[in-house]
Amino acid sequence: MSNTVEDKSKANEQSDSEKNQIDDEKNADQSTRFGWFSFRPDYLQFFNSPPWLLALLCFYAVVVNLELLGFRGVAVLQIEKRFNMTSTLAGSIMSTVDISNGLCGVMLSYYVGQRHKSKWIGYGIICLSIGSVIFILPHFIAGPYYYSELVVNATRTTSTMCNVDPSNASSAACASATSQSTPWTYPMIFVLGLVLCGIGYSIQYSVGLAYIDENVSPIISPVYVSIFHMVAVLGPTLGFVIGGAFSNIYVDWPATANDLQPNDPRWIGAWWLGYLIVGLIAFASSLFIFAYPYHLPTYQKSKAKRLAMTKSVKRVDNKYGKRWADFPRAFYEVISNRIFLLAVMGLSLDQIPTIGLVTFLPKYIQSQSGASLLLSTILTAVTAVISAAVGQVASGIILKRWKIVGSKISRFCFYACVANVISSCIFLISCHNPNIAGVYVPYPSPSNNTSIIRSQAVSSIQPLATCNAKCYCDSSLFSPVCGANGMTYQSPCHAGCSSMVTISNAPTGNYSKCSCINPEAENIARRGICTGESCGLMYPLLIGIMVMVVSTSISFSPTIAVILRSIPESQTTFAMGVEGLIYRILGGLLGPVVYGYVMDASCILWNERCNVRQFCWRYDNARLGLYMFTATIICKAIKLVIYGFLWYFHKQQEDLAAAAAAADQGEKQAEDAKHDEKEIEVKVHNDRATDNSPQNMESQI
Length: 701
Fold this sequence. Notes:
The chain is mostly helical.
């Protein structure tokens, strides 16, 4: 009877143990299943794999880069005009997204590193959506765009023409500027929106890359990272193209401007429309990332491979992130890693010209080529953004094809930097300035009204001449007209035009009685810049920019791979946050500011009101190219030196690790030899003892 009870008790215990084991397996299975809350059906597990996770994170990267990089280069030109900002101020505002990205990113990545990464990526996307809506609020607060001060219309017919009352423009314009000026209201709203966008961007970038890296094999991780960055490059491409298309829509859409066309320098497009659409798309799509589990089913196998591959190089994994008190120690441990620090500094210096050019390259191309904003953005997308994608793909293929690992990656990056420095010289190529009298070339002489004198320095050219001295022209007015002599004038007033005429089969905006145009012949002008000879150097310039961008982007993903392999596994998220801090503060902050200053320093014609510079109408192309080259070559040269040190110290670390491994192997072999000798001695001793035992002696007798 007692045996039966004991058997039943053992059976129940075994049953309970099996049940608990099954429950544990179910709970473990649930923690790695795709779905929302308790809704995790089997048919959704098809998406619970690294390729699908990569696809979703790539989509988010496209959305984020489309807005924060692609729209940036298109919007900044129009925000300058709409809210009367210099390029330096506009660039400083745009840099706040990188400041918040770096500062908040390092804190959040430390906190999120040991938590549910996919949920925090979702929070970041929602934060980005809210920031996008706040960023466009100034458009709705400012009211309709008034360009009447610069336009010939029914109420101010002579505002841009000769013989205007000298007391008219200055007092009225200053009174209008005083009544409508709100210097810091709009910039602060822009900053607030971009700060939220930067927080969302930082989580998506640092946490997203760490989430991918921990769930895939370390061998395939560089390929995933390259694909992530390659697809992310499509974001700026689409942003430039879509933003350029929106630039052809009037800023106050659905309202229209019948007397203003996109090729007019005073035109401002619907820069805000793209931000609104992308913000709504990002908010709606954030639902999907919340479905991913804490770890994917592939996590444990990937973790074992990473530990086996990097044991000899990595430091002790202290698994920081559970307490804020450990933050200073964790930060010091990451920042004191020499390989990590050099790799991040190299990326950060490269980020200065990258972000600067992303922000102002459309304006640079527009100034050099005279193309429309739409065409300039398309050329930017083709030359810069697509070239960056080519570089990302090439780096992944090269590293995988030739199995470049360890310090060989640093060597590869160094040689790419050499090509990058050489290709930066392309900015020394510049196109000639258009023939605008009083801006780039002197006014034609009355005796030879069609001659163009280019020998005079641009900075010494006088804005007025005897032919328009009594017209009291506004020096900052830019409403260009093309004279019958083929010369472009800053405005009808600067051409000396005193009346408008209607010409059959011709667009509106034709002027007559222009004293600066040949008074003895046809002295009429039409609105717009004269079509001159095209720049023959434009195509070599664009090809050179493509080469420079490819040589820049080809080292990006390999450097990220060096960073990820140089730190403990539990600190990858935090380390990517630290990388984002240095990367964004140095590159993201300085890039738009430095290149914005370069644009302002090259300006030859400012829009001024009450002696205050607002935005630039025209640039000196030669000076602009020289300043672009100077800013770029300084960053690239310092980057080359840093990658040289990275290669040296990375190789040194590998050699030390190999020597230590060889020494350990030698000690192990010596210990094994001593152990074998002891075993032999013990065996001989035992054999002798056995031979001398009484039993053995008796058996021999």
